[in-house]
Amino acid sequence: MLLVSHLVMKTLLRSLAFIAFVSAEIFPLRATDQPALTAATGYVPCKISSKAHAAFPVRLMTNGVTHGEVQIILEVGIDGQLTDALLAAYTHRDFADEALRVLKASRFTPSSINGQPVISVVNLTFRFETSGVLAFQRIGLPAREIDSLGGEFEYRPHGPSTIDQPPSARQQPGPIYPKEWGDEGRIGSVTVDFYIDENGRTRMPVALDSPDEYLAAAAIDAVKEWRFETPRYRGKPALAHAQQLFVFKPEPKPAPKSGA
Description:
single chain, mainly beta, 5-stranded antiparallel sheet, 33% strand, disordered N terminus
């Protein structure tokens, strides 16, 4: 079993008492190339221990099914509690139910940076074979590009190439960007990878490419508050996969008024 996880910095901005202004430029939903993710210095990954062992569902075996796969994304809080679990893809629902059963019996040790626990988002892949079950845990994005999963998957997310149309936003606040950050030269861009579930809720946002954890936390915090109309694939509610680019920069200073 490969034990690696992906870090999402603990949200830093909920205690701020003011909003100077929103200087991030919010672009339409789009898919981008998936950048490589690296672990921070002093980073210890989340660990998962299970009391239960996944078993090949008897009903599927009886029906002649010989293999299958489930992809699940977990959010583990700083206290080691499982705070969210998103079924991202599966070949058969019975496999997904078995993977969820195992996770409910599991315990978690949170990720940490320099000894401080942080929220982590973990991608899990369960591969079922009649000879046994393997579970892989991975840092960052799944090993296989999840938007391109084949037709053997009964359930999978949809991106710009397969979704009926980009879901319309019902609630899309911008990130908090205090004036002090601009004065300090804290500028840059952040790409956030996230999912939109069948209820229009954003799920599992992670920052892909920010060198600044404060900007990353601001972008993630904003995306968590977004809400959309129900994504649809062939007219039916579906799970959507999206990425969003934020650009943080100070508000332009007004030009000095010319003399009368």
